[in-house]
Task: structure prediction
Amino acid sequence: MDPVYDPSGERLAVVQNTAGEEQLQAASAFIFDLKTGEKSLLANRVLNAFWSPKGDYLAVGKVDGVEILTTAGDPILRLPGHDFQSVVGWSRDGKYLLFKEFEQPEWVTELLETDSGKEKKIPGIPLGFDANGNLYFIGK
Result:
């Protein structure tokens, strides 16, 4: 995973895996405070991370699903039915997490309400949100 800056540009989330690609479960996510140089463990078994728009949460793709965590690593919401590769990102207001899922025979855009965990599926491939909060996807 490429390192990702929080919205303020003051912290950096980094996934490190010293065991190599053949042992993905060994990867861990850390947050670096760029002002102080402090490094703190966010979570283990993490393969990617996405900052929320306010920088108060991270959506992390794990070996066994996706979780929304506080910056201290405390779980807010667990999504074991999602694959780490399915996370696309957050809505601009932080109310939704966007996923892409392949459900035979087509791609599906999935919006997850982060406060309730409710999901809404739309046929098509998600492209993301624009600056006004509009969702774009390629559909039928």
